Amino acid sequence: MNEHRFFLTAIFLVVLVSLLKLYQPFLMIIAIASLLAMATYTINFKLYKLTKNRHIAAILSTSLLSLLLFGPLIYSLTSIGSIANNFDFAMIEKVQHYLKTLDYQLPTPFAFMQSSLDEFINTLNIAQMSSTALSYLGSLGKNSAGFLKDMLLIVVFFFFALLNGKDLIDYIKSVMPLGAQEVNMVFAEVTSVMSVVLYSILFSAIFQGMLFSFIGMYFGYDGLLLGIFYGFASLIPVIGGALMWIPLCALEIAHGNTTSAIIIALYSIVIISIIADTFVKPLIIKYINDKMVKTPTMVNELLIFFAIFAGLTTFGFWGMILGPAITTLFISLLKLYKLLKEKSYM
């Protein structure tokens, strides 16, 4: 019997290594799709109760995810292409000339920075920076095909994860040397955190992007495009939305609209950064944790923030999903180890 078990284990390990080698290019995509399926489990379950059909519920959930992923991206790419074709390069020289002839004095507390700032502006070459930016946009266009391919695969795997995820989880429970209660504890913890992370990211990005789109439309810009860009920029910790409102203020100053630039800056700092991000965002997270998640998560919000930041730094865009998942799984395993250890002493 032991020989048979040893042989079966050896064969299984060989096949497992071969399988990982075979699907290595898709492991990240499969992991992200699976985590997204876990995060949207409650929505898919509600759709299943409504439609009484597992396939229809999975199709509806996948369609919603596709709309959230592809809609903003396609609109942004088409709008950027139109802007690039109609870009006025004379404006670059105008901005540079305006900055170099601008007569300004920093406030007394910051007077020590005056000489350094003057030197920076005098040596500033906006034309070269714009040329570099346009080259980056060109490379972005080349790489966007690969990004779209990854998103398409994520959507496909997401659909099958929703459709067959429960069967797979039940099978894992049956073969793991752990009780169903322990497995459910880990699964519930990871699912709850992923739901909070996903919903809070989406709602916060949409809310802040919507606020910025209002000020953009007020001053005659494409509000939808600015809102999409600001929503993505808000995902970057610390600097976030400044990547959007500072260039917009610089553009207004270049047109001689100093008052408009001040209004945009104040609106972005006070309304979006302070009120929306500092005060409203925690309320959104609390509401999601209390009302939209089946099992409220006990993981500290600050830890989730650092997990998102670490994920973005290590894995790039999709790191905002992987970072919290890896961190939560580690914490859940520690809790499980403690629980099993306490049971062994009982």
From TrEMBL:
InterPro entries tied to this protein: AI-2E-like
Keyword Transferase (UniProt): no
Membrane topology recorded in Swiss-Prot or TrEMBL: Multi-pass membrane protein
Transmembrane segments: 5-20, 26-44, 56-75, 146-165, 186-219, 225-248, 260-284, 304-337
Domain of life: Bacteria
Alphabetical UniProt keywords: Membrane, Transmembrane, Transmembrane helix
A Pfam family that the UniProt record links to this protein: AI-2E_transport
Any one Gene Ontology cellular component term annotated for this protein: membrane
Localization in the cell: Membrane
Family statement: Belongs to the autoinducer-2 exporter (AI-2E) (TC 2.A.86) family.
Name of the molecule in the record: Acid membrane antigen A
Organism: Sulfurospirillum deleyianum (strain ATCC 51133 / DSM 6946 / 5175)
